[in-house]
Amino acid sequence: QVQLTESGGGLVQAGESLTLSCAAPGSTGYSVAWFRQAPGKEREFVAAIKASGGTTYYADSVKDRFTISRDRAASTIYMKLNSLKPEETAIYYCAAGRPITSTIRSIGAYYYWGQGTQVTVSS
Fold it and tell me: CB neighbours of 52 closer than 8 A, spacing ≥ 6?
């Protein structure tokens, strides 16, 4: 059983940065991903990191601005969000699973989900 708890969300202005954390006890051996869901939109993939912590994946829209990392000793996954845009206002969720590479961006590949943390970007 993996329990996921997100934190670090908040209100920022466009262009500013945030770091989200996902406390994930029991996540050893699981890949962990961040998804987000904006009001009225479907949940979408943002970034993922493999269980080993050595391979990362990003949505094209956030590549070069967001960075996902993993502290295996602390069972915590981080995501640094730089140069945030108003359209990135959403609830950000972390999720754990054992996807193969071809499904690592798929919601259905993840078994465990956190409750989410709100990120609001003002213009």
Answer: none
Using an 8 Å Cβ cutoff, are 122 and 86 in contact? yes
Asked if 122 and 13 count as a contact pair (C-beta separation under 8 A), the reply is yes
How far from each other are the two terminal CA atoms of the chain, in whole angstroms? 40
Residues of the chain with pLDDT under 50: none
What whole-number distance in Å separates Cα of residue 89 and Cα of residue 65? Answer: 15
∠90-33-38 over CA atoms, to 5°? 15
Q: What CA–CA distance (Å, rounded) separates 17 from 85?
A: 10
**Backbone φ and ψ of 93, nearest 5°:** -115, 145
Q: What tokens appear for 114 in the block?
A: 């956190």
- The 10s digit of each residue's pLDDT in 49-74 is 998 877 999 999 999 999 999 998 88
Distance CA 88, CA 72 (A): 28
- The structure tokens listed for 123 are 């213009």
CA distance 47 to 92: 11
